[in-house]
């Protein structure tokens, strides 16, 4: 049943590919999902249970005639059919590599290095990517769907990152985009607001915010003032606010202010904490251009931003995000993007709204765990790791190393047959 559901979801991309490219697209997605080792092109090819020894997955990634942007748009549209409450999350990530031969590798410092840690290098070769995820919300339930990723140029990381960001925000539905505090950049925010999006970003504790100027502070002639007195959050009055996901009420204060990082007024929300009695207060600052959001929603949204970090780790461990060994820029972009597509489609079939809309659904969680022989783990819902484990358990079969074509035929038939040529 899960296989039939996933086949139907994959077929939603049919009109974006030619006949042979769609077969390769489907085989690649199935290979990414079913592969349990290193997700190189060869490993993905073998995991997709091919009937023919000739394969064209490398050509499909490097020279195939299909548009990655249209795949991203279709993926987002497919997810939004079953999601009513959602936000975007934007961040950067690294993929560590060895050597200098692959395209776009650059040398970057590992700032977490410590002298006492002998298992970690002080410097790394690798690629840097910009990634976008769609965080779906259904009451207390939240799940991240990774939808877009782009390789950044090693020669000009700043300009490349901005260009990649501008290229994607113009082709996706307008929504709220959540950033970490490292993205306090007026250029990012200007392009984002121009395209009709809203932003939610964390600020550093020493960031400069200003009150809106009063009528008395405006000059009699000339340009009107945009910034009033500087904000000092330590002087604000804090009240306890109950926020979903926190055991105790938080001491919160908020105002509509201005920042020189953003061309529009923002709502600044400050959470004050005292780690120990006798210590000074610590302040957590987050601001948004969506002035209609409640304080509780703003704090909850940013708390859920961490799911992007954990999902990137899961994509690297389970879906081979950083296992690619292709060499050209287009092939690298397409390889990591298809790992995102595989992760999103796998999670979509276990989303509550999708299950309600389709009669054929996954079995009950406890029944699926029992089938796989898992008795020591009692999760509350299907996670990405459990979904992948269940699909791989259904398709598990031994593969012979013999060169005999008939002996290497899969026993239960492949999901898709790789076309020759």
Give me some keywords for this one.
alpha+beta, 11 strands, disordered C terminus
Structure in words:
The protein has helices at residues 2-10, 19-34, 41-47, 57-62, 68-80, 157-169, 186-194, 295-304, 306-318, 329-348, 352-357, 365-372, 384-395; strands at 85-97, 106-109, 123-138, 141-151, 176-179, 198-203, 210-211, 239-241, 250-259, 262-273, 282-288. It has 421 residues and is an alpha+beta fold. It folds into 2 domains: 10-180 and 307-395, no CATH class; 198-213 and 226-304, no CATH class. Strands 1, 2, 3, 4, 5, 6, 7, 8, 9, 10 and 11 form an 11-stranded mixed sheet that branches. Strand 3 and strand 4 (141-151) form a beta hairpin. Helix 2 packs across helix 3 and helix 5 (68-80) runs parallel beside helix 10 (329-348). Mean pLDDT is 85; it is low at 397-421.
Layout of helices and strands, plus pairs?
Elements: H1 2-10, H2 19-34, H3 41-47, H4 57-62, H5 68-80, E1 85-97, E2 106-109, E3 123-138, E4 141-151, H6 157-169, E5 176-179, H7 186-194, E6 198-203, E7 210-211, E8 239-241, E9 250-259, E10 262-273, E11 282-288, H8 295-304, H9 306-318, H10 329-348, H11 352-357, H12 365-372, H13 384-395
Parallel strand pairs: 1-5, 5-6
Antiparallel strand pairs: 1-3, 2-3, 3-4, 6-11, 7-9, 8-9, 9-10, 10-11
- What fraction of residues sit in β-strands? 15-25%
Helix content: 25-40%
Q: Give the count of structural domains.
A: 2
Total count of helical runs of at least 4 residues = 13
Question: Biggest β-sheet, characterized?
Answer: 11 strands, mixed
SS elements, strand count: 11
SSE-based structural type: alpha+beta
| Shape annotation | globular
SSE arrangement, N to C: HHHHHEEEEHEHEEEEEEHHHHHH
Question: Measured on Cα atoms, how large is the radius of gyration?
Answer: 24 Å
**Overall pLDDT confidence:** 85
- The separation of the N and C termini measures 32 Å
